[in-house]
Amino acid sequence: MIEFVEGKVDYINPEYIVVDVSGIGYQIFTPNPYLFQKYLNETIKIYTYQYVREDMIALYGFENRQERTLFAKLLNVSGIGPKGGLAILAAGQPDLLVQAIEEENEKYLVKFPGVGKKTARQMILDLKGKLSDVCSEFMPNLFNHEQLNKKSTSVSHELEDAIEALKSLGYAEKEIQKVIPLLQEEQLPTDQYIKKALQLLLR
User: Fold this and answer.
1) To bridge 153 with a disulfide, which of 23, 110, 161, 193 should be the other Cys (CB 3.0-4.6 Å)?
2) Are residues 99 and 37 in the same domain?
């Protein structure tokens, strides 16, 4: 198991980043690749999860160990694969995810791409009561977090990148088009576009 990768961010696209470690480029899939744009050509440490299947080996990367652990727990739920796990974590609000599971809020969970009522119910059955150890320090204000209702960004190259990233997470063009008008009031970095768009999509 590769615990982490430390190196320079060499390349970013809507699905993954490439980290240069002593001349070797590691392709690492992350929930929001553009979150690392501010580190382009800088050295960072990414905590990784190595996914091995008969037909593929892939690295998934996260900013901290707690987020990686949450991703691993999501993969244990029947019906959730790596792409689905990334889409769930991409909103950047793990406290709301855990709260929804603990409160059996299926209505919130089914808003994620690829999560239907059956998968939402399975998430609750498999994970309820089993996430507090993962999230206690990571989310000290769990269950006291208020839903954000903010608006986002402007038509720009960054917004276009954000839209491509949303598509790669599995959101449909029709869903994305609904929030674009709300993303044209501020100019923000791509990672913030993605975060705000996801907040709107999950309302």
Assistant:
1) 193
2) no
Stronger pLDDT, 134 or 76, i.e. the higher one: 76
Give me the number of domains the chain comprises.
3
Structural domain that includes position 181: 157-201
pLDDT (tens digit per residue) in 43-59: 999 999 999 988 889 99
**Digit-coded pLDDT (tens) for 114-151:** 899 999 999 999 999 888 656 554 455 443 433 333 33
- Pairing relationship of beta strands 24-29 and 56-62 according to DSSP bridges: parallel
Reported in sequence order, the residue ranges of 110-200 that DSSP labels E, i.e. its strands, are none
- Spell out the alpha helix ranges (H) of 58-116: 65-75, 82-89, 94-102, 106-109
